[in-house]
Specification:
Length: 176
């Protein structure tokens, strides 16, 4: 038995919705993966710089009078200054902010697509035209989200592969 044009379009919508869902989930997973590295680094550097800045005067005053004190103070202050500069040069706080925003954006889009797919699932006779319009909006959101993504040197090929493998395991038979 041959499919009608509407049945064919519904099948195509299903396939494209699942592929889009996968792409969105992958982007969200990538952002989350990199955030799990940058957040602790951001917090650690900020903490070290704050503690050494506050303690620098007291430690410098106490250690300055001893022969090794000057060297110890110089190393502590130098490390704090280096970390502070590194934090600024790498724009770590900006990266964390951007990645957090992007991860949240893709999470929201993923949840909307999940609901969309569920609506198609529970009502196989769904009205094609309104669903196509809604899906086109989700695809537009994916395009906008993809344009917001910035390259990050932590997004290595290996990391991308690990994220993809984990996502493939999680999604199981949903993968098209």
């Amino acid at each position: 038995m041959q499919k009608t044009a509407e049945e064919y379009q519904k099948d195509l919508l299903w396939q494209t919705a699942l592929e889009t869902f996968y792409r969105v989930a992958y982007a969200e997973s990538l952002m989350t993966s990199v955030l799990q590295i940058w957040r602790p680094i951001d917090g650690l550097i900020k903490s070290i710089v704050t503690i050494t800045t506050i303690g620098s005067v007291m430690i410098g005053w106490m250690l300055w009078g001893t022969p090794t004190g000057k060297l110890a103070w110089l190393i502590i202050a130098g490390c704090a200054a280096f970390l502070s500069l590194l934090h600024i040069i790498l724009k770590i706080s900006d990266r964390v902010t951007d990645l957090s925003h992007n991860a949240q954006y893709f999470k929201s889009l993923r949840l909307n697509l999940e609901r969309f797919i569920y609506d198609m699932e529970v009502n196989p006779d769904f009205p094609l035209e309104p669903f196509k319009i809604t899906f086109e909006q989700y695809r537009e959101w994916l395009l906008v989200g993809s344009q917001m993504l910035k390259e990050d040197f932590l997004l290595t090929r290996r990391r991308r592969q690990r994220v993809q493998e984990k996502l493939n395991q999680q999604m199981g038979d949903m993968i098209v």
